[in-house]
Amino acid sequence: MAASPAAPAGGTTGLGSHTVSRIGFGAMQLERLHDDRAAAVALLHRVAELGVNHVDTAEFYGDGFVNSVIRDAYRDRLGASDASDASADGTGMVIVSKVGATPADGPIRLRLAQRPDELRASVEDNLKSLGLDRIPVVNLRRTDTGPGLRAEGDQVVDLDDQLAVMTDLRDQGKIGAIGLSSVSIDTVRRALPAGIVCVQNAYSLVARRDEEILRLCVAENIAWVPYFPLGGAFPGLPKVTDEPAVQAAATALGATPAQVGLAWLLHHAPNTALIPGTADPAHLEANIAAGALHFDAATLATLDAVESRPLELPLS
After folding, report:
1. Catalytic one among 61, 74, 203, 227?
2. Which CATH number fits domain 14-232+270-277: 1.10.10.1100, 3.20.20.100, 3.40.50.2300, 3.30.300.130?
């Protein structure tokens, strides 16, 4: 018999109609375990044991490999007709996928797929690889803001046309709710009538350019899901762990700088739902342990005062 899951580290928050662990799991790095499927499945089992019930994925992660591992690992938790009923008690997993890109050959191994027909096809691909009748949440990956690809030619698609197909898929029951990724505040405002449940943008302690979007999400009860929460994933992206105030806090608390960076995000806004990713069990446990980290008022004030730096990134 499987061990009972731990209480969610860092507590829970709302994600549309779902209650999810505030520290979730970003599955992208599972692609590193492409040659060791058993290890990938075991890592996902450990994710559940640690009280995590929010997993972020995409069909273009490993060209379907990551989704297929999620399907295998959580077969008992992802009943095809019950996937939207997952809760934070360990009985289910809230799977969040995304559309707007697709695998491609080349150094980037990704191309945009922004057209309505491509969005619809991507949802179908995700349903098939995950083995679901309905995906609880699907994010529309836009190209309003970096880092990442920029739309050109027929990939420049009006938001209303994209939301029309996403809401149609929701009405059909193929997706439970709609989120947004890599978006500007104008896009978020325009999308509000469609019923947006989460926003994913690059954001960290040292790169807080989207503070206005975060405030809007708090006001509208939209989950804020920062990606690159520790920065450093692209050249020119500032690293949270290099910040002296973060290092000092880590030393004082007996934690790592990475844990301080993750914990600050949880303290900064009540609607934050983290999705740090890894392919290493020890790193996974360290990420989850960040949810138990607490700051006194002076430490939090010092971290809040860290200067936010611009994201000056080459975009392809």
Report:
1. 61
2. 3.20.20.100
